[in-house]
Every structure is written in C-alpha cells, then in structure tokens.
Design brief:
The complex is a heterodimer of chains A (271) and B (265). Chain A is an alpha/beta fold. In chain A, 38% of the residues lie in helices and 23% in strands. Helix content of chain B is 82%, strand content 0%. Classes of the chains: A alpha/beta (271), B mainly alpha (265). Chains A and B meet through strand 5 and helix 3 of A and helix 7 and helix 8 of B.
Chain lengths: 271, 265
Amino acid sequence: MSAVVAASAGSREPVVEIRAADKVFANGTRALGPVDLTVRDGEFVTLLGPSGCGKSTLLNMIANLIAPSSGQLAWWRKGFDDVGEPGRKLVMVFQDATLMPWARVQRNVRLPLDLARMSRTEGDARVADALELVGLTGFEASYPRQLSGGMQMRVSIARALVTEPNLLLMDEPFGALDEITRTKLDADLIRLWWRKKLTVVFVTHSIYEAIFLSTRVVVMAARPGRVLEDVVIDEPHPRTDDFRVTQKFAGYAKVLSELLAEASAKGATDL
Amino acid sequence: MTPAGNERLLKWVAPLAVGILALLAWHVLVKAFDVPKFLVPSPDLVLETLIADRELLFGSLLVTLKITFGAFFMAVIIGTVVAFLFVQSRWVERSFFPYAVLLQVTPIVAIAPLIIIWVRNTTAALIVCATIVALFPIVSNTTLGLRSVNPGLLNLFRMNKATRWQTLTQLRIPSAAPYFFGGLRISSGLALIGAVVAEFVAGTGGTGAGLAYQILQAGYQINIPRLFAALLLITVTGVLLFLLMVFLSKLALSSWHESEVVHES
C-alpha cells in the first residue's frame, strides 16, 4: 500500500517545483543552494538537516516570504500570483503558534476567512469543522493565554486548515513542545494529512519525527545549504505509534543519522 | 491570614495607614509647636476652608477641569493621528520626530506667553498650552505600539494577502493598545500639570479663574489655608484622573494582556 503511494508519487502532479534556487544575502553569505526539489501532490516531504542548512530558508521560499537570489520556483506549474485560487491554496504554520493574544480562539481561527471577507455564518461553520479536526471543540471562547503550548499549536493548525489548503508548510511546528505532546500532535497531524489528502512540506531537526511523518525525507547539509539525499520512507498509511518501535523504523533512523553526521561533517570542513 | 486577604491589606490598608499617620503627625506637630496658620495650617483647618470657600474653589476646579480634559482630548486625537502618520512611512517619522521632541523639551512656561498672545480666547490658549505638554507620551507610545507587531503575525497577514487597512485595524491597532493606554496614563497627568502651569502664566482672574489663579491669589493674600485647599483639589483631581485611566485600561485589556490579567496562582 505504501509502496503504491511512494511509487505513484513520481507520476503525480507537481505542487512545487524548485529549479536551481539559491539565496545569497547582501553580505555575501550563501544561505542556500542552488537547490532542485519537486514536491508532488499528496506527498509528505520533510526537510531534515543541521541548523544553518537553509531548510527554513527553503520553506520560506516556497511560502514566497523570501525571494530566491537566482533560480525559479513554480506552484502548480504556475507563478505565485495564481496561488490562492481553488485547488491551489497554500498555508504556513510557524514555529510559534503566532496567535493574536487579544482574540478568542474562534476569531483567531477565523482570521484567514475574515481577511478574505467571507461571511460570518459561513466562516463560523468552517471554524467549527477545523476545531473539530484538531480536537479543540469547546475551546472557541478561550483566549490563547488560557491554553497550553500544545493546544495553542492546535489552534494554529486549525487556523491553517480553515482555508481548506492544498499545500501545508510547517516550520518546526512542534519544536518548542515537550516530547509527549509532540508525539501526540505528530500522530494527529499524519491522520489529518491522510484524511484531507494534503500535500505537506515539513521542517524539523528530529530524525524520529521525520521518519514517522514523511513519505519522503530530504536531508540537507550546511554551508552552503544544499540537498544531500532524498530518502523515501516506505511504510503504509495510516501509520500508528506502533511504527515507531519497528525494525524498519530503526533502520531508517540509522540511515538518516549517518546522513546527518555526514551533513554536519561536510559543513564542518567548510568552516 | 489568607493570601487574598494579605493582598488586600497590602493594596488598601497599608497606604491608607501611612496617609492617616502622616495627617495625624501633621496635626499634632502644628498644634504642639503652635505653628501660625499663615505658615502651615492644620489639616482640619484646610478642610474647613475647603468647605467654607467651596463656591469659589469648586468653580475654579471646574475651569481647570475644562482645560485639562480639553487638552487631554486634543492630545489623544492629535497624538494618535500623528502616530498613525509616523508609522505610514519611515520618511515621515524621520522627518518629523525631531520636532515632536523639540516640542516636548521646550518648557511650556517659556512658550506659554507667546501662545497666550497669539490665541485670543484665553480658554483656548490654555488648552493649547496644556495640549503641548500632554501630547508627546501619546505620540511616542502609540508609535512604538503600532510598530511593535509580532513579525510572525505580520507574515501571516501578508500571506493571507491582507490589505493595508485590514493589517491596520486587525493587527496594528490591537497590538498598540497596551502602549496606547500606557501613554494615556502619563498624558492625563501631564494635561493637568500643563493646565495648571498655563493658568499660572496667564494669571487670568474673574469668572474664568482656575485653581492655579486661586493659589496665586491666596499666596498674595497670605491666605495659606485656601492655598492648601486648592492644592488638595488639584492633587485629588490628578489621582482621580490616574485612577480613571487605570480603569479604562483594565476595561480594554483585562481579558488578554499580561499587565492586566489577574493571575490565579
């Protein structure tokens, strides 16, 4: 079943295509690339690498928050102007929950719809759906400060889902959470991805999180940031926590940690 | 004693006790050393004078209040508008901010005579003076607040293709609110000070006489109890203004902002 997912991914429509994109800052530091990467419809791609490997830069480029110094990006084979049309919706979940502290959960989640001037009644119905998906029904009237870190992150994810996105970008979204909360959110996220047929690009520096979540792990190296290896995680979905204790999981962990060691070593020799 | 009771004790009883003790000491010392009332009147005499001269003093209080609130209102309106203009572009802020500072650092007593000459209507002139004094905290605090937007939220608004107007009303203004209310607290006190100082300089008598004029007159006539009574009115007004601002700030922010949230623990 997973083999089917992995094998058929090659023939699916590309969602994001990155061709020879790089980023050189004004002071001459090369943060990234040139990098080539294609993310196809329905994939869960994780960018894994040591700090300074440009994984966040790459993700921000996909979000169109950073422009490449040279090279090209395409979204659904088109420019960024068409992003936002039905079937081409992109959202980003940040490392912090970035909620508006003055607004209740309801209004925080409805924000993207408010900004798009959707009617209140239609918006509220969508908010209810999104909150149910992340398991926060009943917390509509809470203020962010009344919620735990994990719950705030769920609100952030609900706010992303409310726009019914096709491409979900996540920048170390669970990095600041404790291990137990993180494991729980990982499991919920993978279920969501499966149910909603999302395409996800996920940044993390946790090998275990990368293996558990991804259909494909892109290992990156630093100085300059570049793609070192592309590892397909050949395990059927929906995955459960049992996957974490299998021989196969341990095998992938070994492969990835060796690659990460290589990535760090290569980075170090460049210093 | 429960922690909550302790808290109440600290908040109300302790400062009240200090006040009563100070008044008692004042009273005892004045009586014990037989201090003449044209130097330091006893507290009860001040109160007596306040009641006896109430028509005069409260009439003047009304005048001072009119100037204070007029100036405070103007400062809030002008200050907020200026802050909004400042955050529209760095160029505007860089070009005009030094002059806002200039206005702030020039002592109001030095420019008040000019303003009183330029502005015919005395009340208007006094309001202009007090406005100049009260303006700066609103401008600087609101500008800072409008700029202190969580960059992550700003990115989020940008990614959702929010218009300038949406970003302003739904992100910048709520973010600025705590700073704005901080500015209000400072500014309300300054408006009162500005009003009193401007009255001193103008020295207007007659029906338009404010509390500062009563203090001046009482000083000339060595009517020290009345001077004290007028002083008391100004002080109480200042405290009430401050409390009003605290109340407004609580009303607006208590649901979410750290500074106003009552922590359960």
